[in-house]
Each structure stands twice: as C-alpha cells, then as structure tokens.
Amino acid sequence: MNPNQPIKKSKLIPWIFVIFFSTFIIVDIVYIVIAEKTWRGLAIENGYQKGLKYNKTIEALREQKKLGWKMDIKYQVIKIKNGFLVVNLFDKNNQKIIDANLIANIRRPVQEGKDFSVNLKFNLSTQSYDSAVEFPMIGQWTVEVVARKGDDVYQDFKRWVIN
C-alpha cells in the first residue's frame, strides 16, 4: 500500500458507524447520570396498594360530604419560612367545632424527605385551631389538615408557595 494513495471510502464506512453509535451511547450515559443525581422523588410508594384502596377512599369522601363540615385553613407569615397555621372547623349548622383533634400533614410535592406533621391545638382566645410552623425550605408546600371527632373524620388541603 502506498502512503500517498488516498483511503478508499469503503474503509471509512465502518468507522463512521462506530463513531455515530459511540456518540449515541456516551450521550445516553451522560443523561442517565444526570437523571440519577437530580431525581427528586416524585414517585408514590406503594402505588398499587393505594390503587386497590381507591373504593374505600371514595366511600370516605361520601361520608365526609354527609357530615357537612367546612374547614377554613389560613397561613399567616411571621418571617421567611416561619409562620402560623390557623384552622377554623365548622359543622353543618355553621357552628364552630371546638373539641376535635386536628393534625396538619405538610408535604413538599416536588421533593421527598421534607414532609412533616404538626398538631393543631384549640386556642380559646382566637376560637380556632393553630400552631407555629417552620418550613425547612422555601417553595411550594401542600398542607392537608385531618380533623377527627369521635368516629367522624374530615380533611381538607391548601397549597401555598412559602417565601
């Protein structure tokens, strides 16, 4: 073979395929690494079991509607990431319910590992349930309040962006 002789195109074709697919594989590996490092946990644990219990959830919603209760959930900002959660609970006659147990489950919908709960105590001076809340970080949060009085259960939620 003469070094001055040009390389035939037929010898380059396999190398073009190798370079093309190598580039494809490298890009895929980079995307996989980025996805693993930035995953925020949007998947639901035990999704199949929760799906099987869906009929119970629908029945609980019907029972909740029969109660006729209403819930007013407010968040009062004190300073960045700190505030006061205030809840008023009313029966079907629009009278305040003062002897229920309330728990606020606070979740960050875009990131796992930051969820927490607070017990809301009835405050005689304001005639409402309240608790101080300190969020671990700013951003979007969902507050689900569950009220229990005897066998009756009522729940409602609000979503806020905490600054």
Mean pLDDT: 90
- Describe the global form: elongated
Q: Provide the domain count.
A: 2
Q: Going by CATH, what is the homologous superfamily of the largest domain?
A: Immunoglobulins
- Helix content, binned percent: 25-40%
Structural description of this entry:
The chain is α+β, with helices and mostly antiparallel strands and 163 residues long. It is built from three helices and seven strands. The chain has helices at 9-38, 47-52, 54-67, and strands at residues 70-79, 82-90, 101-107, 116-123, 128-134, 139-149, 152-162. It has a seven-stranded antiparallel sheet. The longest helix has 30 residues, at 9-38.
Quick recap:
This protein is α+β, with helices and mostly antiparallel strands.
Could you give the topology of this structure?
Blueprint: H1 9-38, H2 47-52, H3 54-67, E1 70-79, E2 82-90, E3 101-107, E4 116-123, E5 128-134, E6 139-149, E7 152-162
Antiparallel strand pairs: 1-2, 2-5, 3-4, 3-6, 4-5, 6-7
Features:
single chain, 39% strand, seven-stranded antiparallel β-sheet, 7 strands, 163 residues, 3 helices, 2 domains, alpha+beta, Immunoglobulin-like
